[in-house]
Amino acid sequence: MAKRNHTTTLGCIACDELSELGAGKNHGFAIEWLVFDDIRVLALGTSSGYLLIYSLDGGLIHKQLLYPSRILKLRVRGTKRDIAQDISNEEVCIVMNGVIARFDGSDLQNMLQRWFQETQTDFWDQKRKKRDLDDFDETFERVPYQLWSVNKYGACADAAITGVMPPPLMELESSHRYYRAVTIGNDAVISAYRLSEDKNRSLVGALLSKVVPATFSTIASFSSLIWRSDRSLPKKSEPKPQSFARAASLTCLKDPPRKGEKLTLSPSGTLAAITDSLGRILLLDTQALVVVRLWKGYRDAHCLFMEMLVEKDSASTSYHEYKKSDYCLCLAIHAPRKGIIEVWQMRTGPRLLTIQCAKGSKILQPHTDSARQWH
């Protein structure tokens, strides 16, 4: 019997912008689906810090520099905008080396809806031609985003924004929204931060931001008088990332020589599975910031969260319409050295399933449906 193919080609992206902006260099690029209603596009993060969004036919929809550092991962998930209100929204988290960026899904959706409307007219074709002739960087709109530095405990190998959290005690009346972030890396196995939308800096930072540019301007003016440099055509200015917002450290776990390697977040953001260099898997409660479970002997493991039917004690019927309560959140662990995939019930339940898998097998996480939030 011939081998069955269960994949379908949806699109292809092959263009000059990928190599020019750092895609494919230094360990490739990050890629993730963006799905908003009927709009389905691909988001790519490059080694130069650019976020690129492509249509399925390979057309470049959006290009934006986030921070001049290699993008390690793109995370897309549903999240609640407010703790007190049950209002869900998509968010896109971009992980770089010691830096986290966040896009609100509604901002990306609005940009993509404008693009979709333009594609229905000749305006999109004219806009594409204009980008070929004009300055390539200045023809894309800037989508607002937040940016934080999370390198207090060294560079991070992976990170995630796990949800909204209350403000600190001294800022209870603050109108800013706060997020909780978890990072892993070589120096600190696990670190946690409170991320604020506020960009206010310390007094020293504010003084430096004023004094340094003024001093540099004075030196440059003095040098031009001495050397009488010829005036030349103005050089094309490089796009600059925005300033960092505030990030306060919450906790840190250091346990050398152990290093954090990969982080997998549950759909609700309340649990995170973290693999380390010693072959262990830590199940972290991201709200209490406590490790609630530990597996050993899983080197090079890959994890993903999934749902499984819960066994019912009642007699089975010929027809049963399954509800949300019939499912439970589980963690699938692919142990390539053992050649198996195990499925464990969360948080402290038993192993429900063991699957033998061939060498070279991989497990893939499908796009998370924001409408289904599991705890």
Largest sheet: 4 strands, antiparallel
Provide the helix percentage.
Answer: 10-25%
Q: Which sequence of strands runs across the widest sheet? A: 1-2-3-4
Q: What's the count of strands? A: 20
The Cα radius of gyration reads 24 Å
Order of helices and strands: HEEEEEEEHHEEEEHEEEEEEEEE
Mean pLDDT: 79
- The number of helical segments is 4
Q: Please tell me what the overall shape is.
A: globular
Distance between the termini: 42 Å
The percentage of residues in β strands lies in 35-45%
Q: Which structural class best describes the helix and strand composition?
A: alpha+beta
Low-confidence stretches: 83-87, 201-227, 369-375
What's the arrangement of secondary structure elements?
Elements (H helix, E strand, L loop, with lengths): L15 H5 L9 E7 L2 E7 L4 E5 L5 E6 L5 E10 L7 E9 L2 E6 H15 L3 H11 L12 E4 L6 E10 L12 E8 L4 E7 L6 H25 L19 E7 L6 E6 L5 E6 L4 E5 L4 E6 L6 E8 L17 E9 L4 E6 L5 E6 L19
